TrEMBL record:
Pathway: Amino-acid biosynthesis; L-phenylalanine biosynthesis; phenylpyruvate from prephenate: step 1/1; Metabolic intermediate biosynthesis; prephenate biosynthesis; prephenate from chorismate: step 1/1. The gene is pheA. Its EC number is 4.2.1.51, 5.4.99.5. This is Bifunctional chorismate mutase/prephenate dehydratase. It comes from Ketobacter alkanivorans. One of its GO terms (cellular component) is cytoplasm. InterPro entries: ACT-like_dom_sf, ACT_dom, Chor_mutase/pphenate_deHydtase, Chorismate_II_sf, CM_dom_sf, CM_II_prokaryot, G/b/e-P-prot_chorismate_mutase, Preph_deHydtase.
Amino acid sequence: MSDSKPTLETLRDTIDQLDRQIQELINKRASCAQQVADVKQAGMEEGEKAVFYRPEREAQVLRRVMERNSGPLNNESMARLFREIMSACLALEEPMSIAYLGPEGTFTQAAAQKHFGHAVRTLPMATIDEVFREVESGSAHYGVVPVENSTEGVVNTTLDSFTHANVTICGEVELRIHHHLLVGANTKENSISRIYSHQQSFAQCRQWLDAHYPAADRIPVSSNSDAAKRMQSEWNAAAIAGEVAAEIYGLKKVASNIEDNPHNSTRFLIVGREHVPSSGQDKTSIIVSMKNKPGALYELLAPFHEAGIMLTRVETRPSRDGTWAYLFFIDFEGHENTESVKNVLKHVEELAVYVKRLGSYPKAVL
Ligand SMILES: O=C(O)C(=O)C[C@]1(C(=O)O)C=C[C@@H](O)C=C1
Protein backbone atom coordinates (compact mmCIF):
# COMPACT_ATOMS: atom_id res chain seq x y z
CA MET A 1 0.00 0.00 0.00
CA SER A 2 1.34 3.48 -0.88
CA ASP A 3 1.95 5.99 1.94
CA SER A 4 -0.30 8.64 0.33
CA LYS A 5 -3.45 6.56 0.88
CA PRO A 6 -5.50 7.83 3.83
CA THR A 7 -5.69 5.52 6.80
CA LEU A 8 -8.90 4.17 8.29
CA GLU A 9 -8.41 6.52 11.21
CA THR A 10 -8.05 9.69 9.12
CA LEU A 11 -11.02 8.71 6.94
CA ARG A 12 -13.16 8.20 10.04
CA ASP A 13 -12.02 11.58 11.38
CA THR A 14 -13.14 13.17 8.13
CA ILE A 15 -16.49 11.37 8.33
CA ASP A 16 -16.94 12.60 11.93
CA GLN A 17 -16.30 16.20 10.86
CA LEU A 18 -18.66 15.92 7.89
CA ASP A 19 -21.37 14.35 10.08
CA ARG A 20 -21.11 17.30 12.47
CA GLN A 21 -21.55 19.74 9.58
CA ILE A 22 -24.43 17.75 8.05
CA GLN A 23 -26.17 17.61 11.43
CA GLU A 24 -25.78 21.34 11.92
CA LEU A 25 -27.14 22.06 8.44
CA ILE A 26 -30.11 19.72 8.92
CA ASN A 27 -31.01 21.53 12.13
CA LYS A 28 -30.67 24.90 10.38
CA ARG A 29 -33.05 23.59 7.72
CA ALA A 30 -35.46 22.33 10.39
CA SER A 31 -35.47 25.72 12.06
CA CYS A 32 -36.32 27.31 8.67
CA ALA A 33 -39.26 24.89 8.38
CA GLN A 34 -40.45 26.01 11.83
CA GLN A 35 -40.38 29.61 10.63
CA VAL A 36 -42.25 28.58 7.46
CA ALA A 37 -44.96 27.17 9.76
CA ASP A 38 -45.20 30.50 11.57
CA VAL A 39 -45.52 32.35 8.25
CA LYS A 40 -48.28 29.95 7.11
CA GLN A 41 -50.11 30.36 10.42
CA ALA A 42 -49.82 34.16 10.32
CA GLY A 43 -51.36 34.22 6.82
CA MET A 44 -54.59 32.62 8.03
CA GLU A 45 -57.87 34.42 8.63
CA GLU A 46 -59.67 34.01 11.95
CA GLY A 47 -60.95 30.40 12.26
CA GLU A 48 -59.05 29.21 9.15
CA LYS A 49 -56.62 26.29 9.50
CA ALA A 50 -53.16 26.53 7.98
CA VAL A 51 -52.14 23.78 5.52
CA PHE A 52 -48.63 22.66 6.36
CA TYR A 53 -48.09 19.76 3.96
CA ARG A 54 -47.30 21.11 0.47
CA PRO A 55 -47.01 18.23 -2.02
CA GLU A 56 -46.09 20.49 -4.96
CA ARG A 57 -43.17 22.02 -3.04
CA GLU A 58 -41.96 18.60 -1.84
CA ALA A 59 -42.03 17.27 -5.42
CA GLN A 60 -40.01 20.29 -6.59
CA VAL A 61 -37.44 19.87 -3.81
CA LEU A 62 -37.00 16.15 -4.59
CA ARG A 63 -36.77 16.72 -8.35
CA ARG A 64 -34.07 19.36 -7.80
CA VAL A 65 -32.13 17.00 -5.50
CA MET A 66 -32.13 14.41 -8.28
CA GLU A 67 -31.24 16.89 -11.03
CA ARG A 68 -28.20 18.29 -9.27
CA ASN A 69 -26.97 14.97 -7.88
CA SER A 70 -23.50 14.03 -9.12
CA GLY A 71 -22.91 10.82 -7.15
CA PRO A 72 -21.43 8.55 -6.03
CA LEU A 73 -24.82 8.07 -4.31
CA ASN A 74 -27.47 7.45 -6.97
CA ASN A 75 -30.40 9.83 -7.48
CA GLU A 76 -32.91 7.61 -5.75
CA SER A 77 -30.79 7.06 -2.63
CA MET A 78 -30.14 10.78 -2.38
CA ALA A 79 -33.81 11.66 -2.85
CA ARG A 80 -34.80 9.12 -0.18
CA LEU A 81 -32.49 10.83 2.31
CA PHE A 82 -34.06 14.20 1.53
CA ARG A 83 -37.51 12.61 1.68
CA GLU A 84 -36.79 11.70 5.32
CA ILE A 85 -35.33 15.12 6.14
CA MET A 86 -38.47 16.84 4.80
CA SER A 87 -40.66 14.35 6.63
CA ALA A 88 -38.96 15.27 9.93
CA CYS A 89 -39.20 18.99 9.10
CA LEU A 90 -42.92 18.70 8.34
CA ALA A 91 -43.44 16.84 11.63
CA LEU A 92 -42.01 19.90 13.41
CA GLU A 93 -44.57 22.09 11.64
CA GLU A 94 -47.47 19.72 12.34
CA PRO A 95 -47.45 15.97 13.17
CA MET A 96 -49.30 14.24 10.30
CA SER A 97 -51.65 11.28 10.59
CA ILE A 98 -52.08 9.14 7.48
CA ALA A 99 -54.90 6.59 7.14
CA TYR A 100 -54.08 3.58 4.94
CA LEU A 101 -55.52 0.23 3.97
CA GLY A 102 -54.25 -1.97 6.80
CA PRO A 103 -53.46 -4.02 8.73
CA GLU A 104 -49.94 -3.01 9.73
CA GLY A 105 -47.30 -4.31 7.35
CA THR A 106 -49.30 -4.05 4.10
CA PHE A 107 -47.84 -2.69 0.90
CA THR A 108 -50.17 0.31 1.31
CA GLN A 109 -48.36 1.18 4.56
CA ALA A 110 -45.03 0.87 2.72
CA ALA A 111 -46.44 3.22 0.04
CA ALA A 112 -47.52 5.73 2.72
CA GLN A 113 -44.01 5.72 4.19
CA LYS A 114 -42.38 5.97 0.77
CA HIS A 115 -44.49 9.04 0.01
CA PHE A 116 -44.52 10.84 3.38
CA GLY A 117 -41.31 9.49 4.97
CA HIS A 118 -41.21 7.90 8.42
CA ALA A 119 -41.98 10.93 10.61
CA VAL A 120 -45.76 10.52 10.12
CA ARG A 121 -48.22 8.47 12.17
CA THR A 122 -49.78 5.76 9.98
CA LEU A 123 -53.29 4.62 10.93
CA PRO A 124 -54.39 1.18 9.63
CA MET A 125 -58.00 0.98 8.36
CA ALA A 126 -59.93 -2.23 7.70
CA THR A 127 -61.39 -1.13 4.35
CA ILE A 128 -60.74 1.32 1.51
CA ASP A 129 -64.03 3.10 2.27
CA GLU A 130 -62.86 3.69 5.84
CA VAL A 131 -59.69 5.37 4.56
CA PHE A 132 -61.85 7.80 2.57
CA ARG A 133 -64.13 8.41 5.57
CA GLU A 134 -61.22 9.16 7.91
CA VAL A 135 -59.99 11.84 5.51
CA GLU A 136 -63.47 13.31 4.85
CA SER A 137 -64.19 13.59 8.55
CA GLY A 138 -60.82 15.16 9.31
CA SER A 139 -59.77 12.30 11.62
CA ALA A 140 -56.72 11.78 9.39
CA HIS A 141 -54.88 14.48 7.45
CA TYR A 142 -54.40 12.28 4.37
CA GLY A 143 -55.19 8.77 3.16
CA VAL A 144 -53.41 6.21 0.96
CA VAL A 145 -55.27 3.68 -1.21
CA PRO A 146 -54.12 1.21 -3.90
CA VAL A 147 -55.50 1.97 -7.35
CA GLU A 148 -53.89 -0.37 -9.88
CA ASN A 149 -51.47 -3.28 -10.05
CA SER A 150 -49.36 -4.02 -13.12
CA THR A 151 -50.21 -7.74 -12.95
CA GLU A 152 -53.71 -7.79 -11.49
CA GLY A 153 -55.28 -4.61 -12.91
CA VAL A 154 -57.42 -1.95 -11.23
CA VAL A 155 -58.67 -1.94 -7.66
CA ASN A 156 -62.38 -1.50 -8.32
CA THR A 157 -63.28 -0.65 -4.72
CA THR A 158 -61.03 2.41 -4.88
CA LEU A 159 -62.52 3.62 -8.16
CA ASP A 160 -66.06 3.13 -6.83
CA SER A 161 -65.24 5.04 -3.63
CA PHE A 162 -64.11 8.03 -5.69
CA THR A 163 -67.56 8.35 -7.28
CA HIS A 164 -69.19 9.26 -3.95
CA ALA A 165 -66.31 10.44 -1.72
CA ASN A 166 -65.67 14.10 -1.08
CA VAL A 167 -61.86 14.07 -1.26
CA THR A 168 -59.16 15.48 -3.54
CA ILE A 169 -56.28 13.47 -4.99
CA CYS A 170 -53.08 15.19 -3.94
CA GLY A 171 -50.42 12.71 -4.95
CA GLU A 172 -49.50 9.35 -6.41
CA VAL A 173 -46.85 6.81 -5.48
CA GLU A 174 -45.65 3.73 -7.25
CA LEU A 175 -44.20 0.79 -5.37
CA ARG A 176 -42.29 -2.16 -6.79
CA ILE A 177 -43.96 -5.16 -5.20
CA HIS A 178 -41.57 -7.87 -4.07
CA HIS A 179 -42.93 -11.01 -2.45
CA HIS A 180 -40.92 -13.29 -0.19
CA LEU A 181 -41.56 -16.76 1.23
CA LEU A 182 -41.36 -16.28 5.00
CA VAL A 183 -41.10 -18.66 7.92
CA GLY A 184 -41.12 -18.24 11.70
CA ALA A 185 -38.74 -19.45 14.41
CA ASN A 186 -40.76 -22.68 14.87
CA THR A 187 -41.18 -23.60 11.21
CA LYS A 188 -39.56 -26.80 9.98
CA GLU A 189 -38.36 -25.50 6.61
CA ASN A 190 -38.26 -28.92 4.95
CA SER A 191 -41.86 -29.72 5.92
CA ILE A 192 -43.77 -26.73 4.52
CA SER A 193 -47.16 -28.03 3.42
CA ARG A 194 -49.36 -24.95 3.96
CA ILE A 195 -48.77 -21.46 2.56
CA TYR A 196 -50.81 -18.41 3.60
CA SER A 197 -51.20 -15.23 1.55
CA HIS A 198 -53.60 -12.78 -0.06
CA GLN A 199 -55.30 -14.05 -3.23
CA GLN A 200 -53.58 -11.38 -5.37
CA SER A 201 -50.14 -12.39 -4.10
CA PHE A 202 -50.81 -16.05 -4.90
CA ALA A 203 -51.77 -14.91 -8.42
CA GLN A 204 -48.55 -12.88 -8.70
CA CYS A 205 -46.35 -15.83 -7.58
CA ARG A 206 -48.23 -18.69 -9.29
CA GLN A 207 -45.39 -19.99 -11.49
CA TRP A 208 -42.85 -19.90 -8.69
CA LEU A 209 -45.18 -21.79 -6.36
CA ASP A 210 -45.97 -24.39 -9.04
CA ALA A 211 -42.24 -24.97 -9.52
CA HIS A 212 -41.14 -25.00 -5.86
CA TYR A 213 -44.16 -25.97 -3.72
CA PRO A 214 -46.56 -27.73 -6.10
CA ALA A 215 -48.07 -29.88 -3.32
CA ALA A 216 -48.48 -27.24 -0.60
CA ASP A 217 -51.99 -26.00 0.22
CA ARG A 218 -52.43 -22.34 -0.74
CA ILE A 219 -54.63 -20.72 1.90
CA PRO A 220 -56.02 -17.30 0.94
CA VAL A 221 -56.40 -14.76 3.79
CA SER A 222 -57.50 -11.11 3.94
CA SER A 223 -54.00 -9.58 3.69
CA ASN A 224 -50.34 -10.56 3.55
CA SER A 225 -49.87 -9.24 7.08
CA ASP A 226 -52.64 -11.53 8.25
CA ALA A 227 -50.79 -14.40 6.52
CA ALA A 228 -47.56 -13.48 8.33
CA LYS A 229 -49.39 -13.38 11.67
CA ARG A 230 -51.24 -16.67 11.24
CA MET A 231 -48.45 -18.97 10.09
CA GLN A 232 -46.38 -18.32 13.19
CA SER A 233 -48.29 -20.83 15.32
CA GLU A 234 -47.90 -23.66 12.76
CA TRP A 235 -44.64 -25.63 12.38
CA ASN A 236 -45.43 -26.71 8.80
CA ALA A 237 -46.65 -23.36 7.41
CA ALA A 238 -45.11 -20.42 5.56
CA ALA A 239 -46.42 -17.06 4.34
CA ILE A 240 -45.96 -14.97 1.23
CA ALA A 241 -45.62 -11.31 2.16
CA GLY A 242 -43.41 -8.26 1.71
CA GLU A 243 -40.45 -6.80 3.53
CA VAL A 244 -42.43 -4.73 6.05
CA ALA A 245 -44.52 -7.70 7.21
CA ALA A 246 -41.31 -9.77 7.55
CA GLU A 247 -39.80 -7.04 9.77
CA ILE A 248 -42.89 -6.48 11.91
CA TYR A 249 -43.42 -10.16 12.65
CA GLY A 250 -39.70 -11.03 12.85
CA LEU A 251 -39.87 -13.67 10.08
CA LYS A 252 -37.05 -15.22 8.09
CA LYS A 253 -36.90 -15.11 4.28
CA VAL A 254 -36.60 -18.60 2.79
CA ALA A 255 -36.81 -17.21 -0.76
CA SER A 256 -36.74 -13.58 -1.93
CA ASN A 257 -38.45 -11.82 -4.85
CA ILE A 258 -40.59 -14.78 -5.82
CA GLU A 259 -43.05 -12.75 -7.95
CA ASP A 260 -43.32 -14.10 -11.51
CA ASN A 261 -43.12 -10.67 -13.13
CA PRO A 262 -39.95 -8.80 -12.10
CA HIS A 263 -41.66 -5.47 -12.93
CA ASN A 264 -44.63 -6.17 -10.65
CA SER A 265 -45.68 -2.79 -9.25
CA THR A 266 -48.71 -1.13 -7.65
CA ARG A 267 -49.82 2.48 -7.96
CA PHE A 268 -51.35 4.19 -4.93
CA LEU A 269 -53.15 7.52 -4.63
CA ILE A 270 -52.88 10.03 -1.81
CA VAL A 271 -56.20 11.63 -0.90
CA GLY A 272 -56.72 14.80 1.09
CA ARG A 273 -59.08 17.76 1.41
CA GLU A 274 -57.13 20.59 -0.24
CA HIS A 275 -56.42 21.40 -3.88
CA VAL A 276 -52.73 21.25 -4.78
CA PRO A 277 -51.09 24.05 -6.82
CA SER A 278 -49.00 23.13 -9.88
CA SER A 279 -45.57 21.60 -9.32
CA GLY A 280 -44.63 21.98 -12.99
CA GLN A 281 -45.01 18.23 -13.73
CA ASP A 282 -48.52 17.20 -12.81
CA LYS A 283 -51.37 14.85 -13.57
CA THR A 284 -55.13 15.38 -13.35
CA SER A 285 -57.81 12.74 -12.66
CA ILE A 286 -61.48 13.02 -13.56
CA ILE A 287 -64.59 10.81 -13.65
CA VAL A 288 -66.86 11.31 -16.64
CA SER A 289 -70.19 9.78 -17.51
CA MET A 290 -71.39 9.80 -21.09
CA LYS A 291 -74.72 8.90 -22.67
CA ASN A 292 -74.74 5.30 -23.89
CA LYS A 293 -74.38 5.82 -27.64
CA PRO A 294 -71.98 4.58 -30.34
CA GLY A 295 -68.70 6.45 -30.34
CA ALA A 296 -69.17 7.97 -26.86
CA LEU A 297 -65.63 7.17 -25.74
CA TYR A 298 -64.20 8.33 -29.07
CA GLU A 299 -66.06 11.64 -28.75
CA LEU A 300 -64.86 12.06 -25.18
CA LEU A 301 -61.19 11.42 -25.94
CA ALA A 302 -60.99 13.51 -29.13
CA PRO A 303 -60.52 16.87 -27.29
CA PHE A 304 -57.48 15.45 -25.45
CA HIS A 305 -55.96 14.33 -28.75
CA GLU A 306 -56.65 17.71 -30.37
CA ALA A 307 -55.01 19.57 -27.46
CA GLY A 308 -51.99 17.22 -27.48
CA ILE A 309 -52.66 16.14 -23.89
CA MET A 310 -51.21 12.75 -22.91
CA LEU A 311 -53.68 10.31 -21.39
CA THR A 312 -52.02 8.09 -18.79
CA ARG A 313 -55.01 5.88 -17.89
CA VAL A 314 -58.57 5.28 -19.02
CA GLU A 315 -60.77 2.84 -17.07
CA THR A 316 -64.39 2.02 -17.73
CA ARG A 317 -66.78 1.04 -14.94
CA PRO A 318 -70.49 0.36 -15.16
CA SER A 319 -72.49 3.03 -13.38
CA ARG A 320 -74.00 1.51 -10.26
CA ASP A 321 -77.04 3.77 -9.91
CA GLY A 322 -78.64 2.68 -13.18
CA THR A 323 -78.99 6.20 -14.58
CA TRP A 324 -75.81 6.32 -16.66
CA ALA A 325 -74.39 3.62 -18.84
CA TYR A 326 -70.66 4.14 -18.36
CA LEU A 327 -68.30 5.86 -15.98
CA PHE A 328 -64.85 6.66 -17.37
CA PHE A 329 -61.93 7.22 -15.01
CA ILE A 330 -59.39 9.31 -16.87
CA ASP A 331 -55.89 10.37 -15.81
CA PHE A 332 -53.96 12.76 -18.00
CA GLU A 333 -50.84 14.91 -17.90
CA GLY A 334 -51.13 18.57 -16.91
CA HIS A 335 -52.59 20.69 -14.11
CA GLU A 336 -56.16 21.99 -14.09
CA ASN A 337 -54.87 25.56 -13.68
CA THR A 338 -53.13 25.56 -17.08
CA GLU A 339 -54.93 27.00 -20.13
CA SER A 340 -54.78 23.82 -22.23
CA VAL A 341 -56.28 21.66 -19.43
CA LYS A 342 -58.92 24.32 -18.63
CA ASN A 343 -60.01 24.32 -22.30
CA VAL A 344 -60.16 20.53 -22.52
CA LEU A 345 -62.18 20.27 -19.31
CA LYS A 346 -64.62 22.89 -20.59
CA HIS A 347 -65.05 20.91 -23.82
CA VAL A 348 -65.51 17.62 -21.91
CA GLU A 349 -68.08 19.24 -19.61
CA GLU A 350 -70.12 20.26 -22.67
CA LEU A 351 -70.10 16.70 -24.05
CA ALA A 352 -70.63 14.71 -20.86
CA VAL A 353 -73.66 14.03 -18.71
CA TYR A 354 -71.54 14.51 -15.61
CA VAL A 355 -67.90 15.31 -14.79
CA LYS A 356 -66.26 15.02 -11.38
CA ARG A 357 -62.81 16.56 -10.95
CA LEU A 358 -60.78 14.42 -8.58
CA GLY A 359 -57.77 16.72 -8.45
CA SER A 360 -54.44 17.72 -9.98
CA TYR A 361 -51.30 16.48 -8.27
CA PRO A 362 -47.52 16.14 -8.80
CA LYS A 363 -46.34 13.15 -10.81
CA ALA A 364 -44.61 10.60 -8.58
CA VAL A 365 -40.96 11.54 -8.06
CA LEU A 366 -39.56 8.51 -6.23
O1 LIG B 1 -41.95 24.90 1.98
C1 LIG B 1 -42.81 24.64 2.82
O2 LIG B 1 -43.99 25.00 2.69
C2 LIG B 1 -42.43 23.88 4.02
O3 LIG B 1 -43.27 23.71 4.88
C3 LIG B 1 -41.09 23.26 4.13
C4 LIG B 1 -41.07 21.79 3.71
C5 LIG B 1 -39.58 21.34 3.67
O4 LIG B 1 -39.13 20.76 4.64
O5 LIG B 1 -38.93 21.63 2.66
C6 LIG B 1 -41.80 20.97 4.70
C7 LIG B 1 -43.09 20.57 4.49
C8 LIG B 1 -43.84 20.87 3.27
O6 LIG B 1 -44.64 19.80 2.91
C9 LIG B 1 -42.97 21.29 2.17
C10 LIG B 1 -41.67 21.65 2.37
